[in-house]
Amino acid sequence: MKQTCLSFALVLACAGGVLATMPSPPAQAATTATSESSAAPVLVTPAQWQQMASQGERYPWFAKEQARTEAQLRKMMRAGIDVPFPKDKGGGRTHEQHKRNYQALLAAGTLYRLTGDTEYVDYARRMLLEYARLYPTLGPHPEGRGQIPGRVFWQVLNDSVWLVNAVQGYDAIRDALPAKDRQTIDDNVFRPMAEFLASEPKNFDQIHNHSTWAVAATGMTGYVLRDQELVEKSLRGSRKDDTFGFLRQIDLLFSPDGYYEEGPYYQRYALAPFLLFANAIERNEPRRKIFERRDGVLLKAVDVLVQSSYGGLFFPINDAILDKGVDTEELVAGIGIAYARTGDGHLLSVAEQQGRLLLTPEGLQVAQALADGKAKPFDYRPMLLRDGPDGDRGGLAILRMGGEGGQALVQKDTMQGMGHGHFDKLNWLFYDNGQPVVTDYGSARFLNVEAKRGGIYLAENRSWAKQTVAHNTLVVDERSHFNGDWKRGEEHAPTVRFFQADEDTQVASATMRDAYPGVTFTRTQALLRHPDLGLPVVLDLLQVQGAKPARYDLPLHFNGHIVSTGFQAERFVDQRPVLGKDNGYQHLWLDARSPASSEARTLAWLLDGRFYSYRFGSSAPAQALLVESGANDPEFNLRREPALVQRVEGQRAVSFFSVLEPHGEYNGTAEYVHGADSQIRDLVRVRGTDAELLELRLASGARIALGVADDSTSEGEHTVTVDGHAYRWHGSHARMDRTAGKEAAR
User: Fold this and answer.
1) Stretches in the chain below the pLDDT threshold 50
2) Alginate lyase domain: from which residue to which, for each copy (predicted)?
């Protein structure tokens, strides 16, 4: 039954039969001494709560979210309060129950402030008193992993997440509790949890997303408890010397463009504590101007995260789960905060796509703007996102044509990404027609699926997903970049050579040194549009220089059903050999192997009604290997996915070159096929004195050439002659088209 209060206090007989003294809810006009006391909410101000309570129902998006939250919370309340002794890994019953509890606490505090219903206060109060009895009895979690297990959860990260969420709910009801209960909960739940996090420097004093959650939890708790010591530790590190802490994390984990070192998947995860804590800082200490730090990098990070997606899903870089996308709750919070601070209507279309908002002041602003029709289509655009604190440690090149559902080429020239980084320098992904076409495996993990090793990263994450052969980049002598040592990888980043993003020509180029001793490789990729081609094509040139002869493998992991193989090959139909013994090769079945050849060959596949023709070659004889993941996988943890591997043996230097062409349509319902034949008749590579050139020869007779200089800083003229025709250009690179004997540079 909904309770209302008309005076300073009300003796309320709650559902559990416990008597409690409750102050007036904020929706009432009367102000009270209690609401002005040290217990008044500080993460959202009383005035902001009042505005949401009085205006929220006017706006459909806000009202819908409030109704959804209330229905979920009422269901939890009917189930009763359950605060079990922690004993399970991720995905287990007690783990999931404690997650539900922090969600319930946040919802209860929010709904009390919005409705004035004191049942929500009593429900949260009784649950928190159960935690006050439990928490002081807890030591390290019995299933704790690593050096720092949590108390409520098996890893300390989850304790931080619990605290970030629960303290927001507690802040909303804290002034509605009897002083004795408030003191009990302060002293036995929130203060010891925050102090536990701050006392673990191997988690708290780090530059990492785990630490971001820990400092945000501690700092937000410090504001709620009026404990400036906790706030200072969270901002400046446990020693308060500015070596670590929230401010240092902002400075080191983001590039000047807002790209996050661990990649989009973990940018999504870290975004919530970064922005929620920043909001708390802004409310309580606006003089710090936290959203202005580093030219507003936290707000840039919201735009960058949306840009790092296709079809609503994030680019699966590093330890990424493939089904995480822009509708994730962390970005729901991010979009609200970013819109409230910028008024950028493009963010509102993302909110529409999410179909959700948070019951916060920022969520109310989003709801108001959506009701007023202020949403604009999000501007997905080609961009180079620099990596590293100073923007000089490589970057993520995103090439786009055809709008949101068109073509997107991603070249991964970024830093290692710390322990979550994969060994895949100069890797690439390609999207078209709403689908991933050239793919990345992401992580080997079934999040919170207890049957799959408790939902943690599987052994195959290290033996397969991180290994270089699981990606679309160079492998030398069947070993991964940096010999699989991520700390070595942190020391070396690619060098971005150049980036161009015009209407018909988009090009990215980078060089990697030190992934292998004595080996340097450079990758230049272009997304090109031409009137004689139905859709833009991808041109790829990978140049390798080594100090000694080696085996060079170049995998291409693709999505679709093979239509044709334009090369002769030995087929392994009676048995499936395994490609190798270690570094990911032990997980690849070998299905076909061609003789070595320097001639350009083709592979075509069909995906979601569209054909893809891949024409590839190399400057030295190469085998073409057709493989599939899933070997040596007794627990069936790996997805079965195909790949093509080009293999060159015993060479010091080689250039791999290829073109990927989307074309045609297959309609199984209407039973027709259009444009199944490639419009590219040949792909030619020619080496000049100081440059290389790729020439596409189209069925129409047109030719498209991309010239790439060895020295990207040279402004002099470069010349490469193909069949008697001299292509000339100045600078790092140039596109040159020929039609009926005429040449045009682009």
Assistant:
1) 1-36
2) 68-308
Q: Which two tokens stand for residue 481?
A: 């970049």
Residue (of 224, 405, 374) closest to 312 by Cα position: 405
Note whether 325 and 313 are within 8 A (CB).
yes
Q: 566 φ, ψ to 5°?
A: -90, 45
* Distance from C-alpha of 317 to C-alpha of 385, rounded to nearest angstrom: 14
Task: Locate 5 and state its tokens.
Answer: 């209060």
pLDDT of residue 454: 79
Q: Per the residue annotation, which of 95, 141, 208, 420 is the catalytic one?
A: 420
CA-based nearest residue to 158, from 454, 445, 490: 454
How confident is the model at residue 381, as a pLDDT?
96
Catalytic residue from among 59, 170, 266, 516? 266
List domains and CATH numbers for the chain. 1-15+47-227 (1.50.10.100), 254-379 (1.50.10.100), 393-498+533-676 (2.70.98.70)
Sheet containing strand 733-739, strands side by side: 680-687, 691-698, 703-709, 733-739, 742-745
Q: Using the structure block, give the residue that is written with the tokens 């050999």.
A: 577
Region label for 713, one of left (φ > 0), alpha (ψ between -120 and 50) or beta (otherwise): alpha
Residue-wise pLDDT for 98-139, tens only, equals 999 999 999 999 999 999 999 999 999 999 999 999 999 999
E strand or H helix that includes residue 276: helix 264-284
> CA distances (Å), 79 to each of 3, 75, 76, in order?
20, 6, 5
Contacts of 385 (CB under 8 A, 6+ apart): 255, 257, 258, 259, 304, 307, 308, 395, 396, 397, 398
Percent of the chain whose pLDDT exceeds 70 = 94
420 is catalytic: yes
| 196: nearest Cα among 249, 148, 124 | 148
| 3-state DSSP helix/strand/coil % of the chain, to nearest 5 | 35, 30, 35
d(CA 318, CA 418): 10
Q: Say which amino acid occupies 22.
A: M
Instruction: Identify residue 14 by its one-letter amino acid code.
Output: C
Provide the pLDDT for residue 745.
Answer: 63
| Residue 229: count of CB within 10 angstroms of its CB | 12
Q: Please state the φ and ψ torsions of residue 425, each to the nearest 5 degrees.
A: -60, 135
Residue in 268, 370, 310 with CA at minimum distance from that of residue 63: 370
Token output for 107: 């919802």
Instruction: Give the CA distances from residue 493 to residues 259, 392, 486, 545, 551, in Å, rounded to whole numbers and listed in that order.
Output: 15, 9, 12, 17, 23
Report how far residue 487's alpha carbon sits from residue 707's, in angstroms, rounded to the nearest whole number: 36
**Residues 658 and 614 sit within 8 Å (Cβ to Cβ):** yes
Q: How far apart are CA 102 and CA 81, in angstroms?
A: 12
Beta bridge partners of 406: none
Q: What is the DSSP letter of 187?
A: I
* Start-end of H helices in 285-373: 293-307, 329-342, 346-354, 361-371
- Do 53 and 115 meet the contact criterion of CB atoms below 8 Å apart? yes
